[in-house]
Design brief:
The chain is mostly helical and about 120 residues long. The protein is built from five helices and no strands. It starts with a helix and ends with a helix.
Length: about 120
């Protein structure tokens, strides 16, 4: 799904809901899609032995993550002055790495101690 980012940018530039701004509806679309698709993972019966179901849901989560990534990057370019964009990009990547590390660490602990469904719900919140 991350290769679809090539098409997501022009799509977002073409269609927008101007009362909310050019990027905000797409950020919300990505975020709501991420939360709902993560929560839908709890419906997968026996995720350890259901690799197809887990793969499909992983694809859907990744799809919404890619949309949100393009929308937030576009929003940053729209709002942040050009001379500050490189600094902001570094902060955004740093925050992404820290967030990924924290969620992987927390998620692993939750899966091992509470189970898959509980971990997915907690991380969705």
């Amino acid at each position: 799904p991350w290769s679809f980012k090539l098409f997501a940018g022009p799509l977002m530039d073409r269609w927008s809901y101007l009362p909310m701004g050019r990027r905000r509806p797409w950020v919300l679309f990505g975020q709501v899609g991420l939360v709902l698709s993560f929560l839908s993972m709890t419906l997968i019966p026996d995720p350890v032995n259901n690799i197809l179901g887990l793969s499909i849901m992983g694809f859907i989560v990744s799809f919404f993550g890619a949309f949100q990534d393009v929308a937030t990057d576009g929003m940053a370019v729209d709002i942040i002055p050009v001379e500050q964009q490189s600094h902001a990009n570094g902060l955004m990547w740093g925050a992404k790495v820290l967030g990924t590390s924290a969620s992987l660490t927390t998620g692993t602990w939750l899966i091992n101690h509470m189970g898959f469904s509980y971990a997915v719900v907690w991380l969705s919140v």
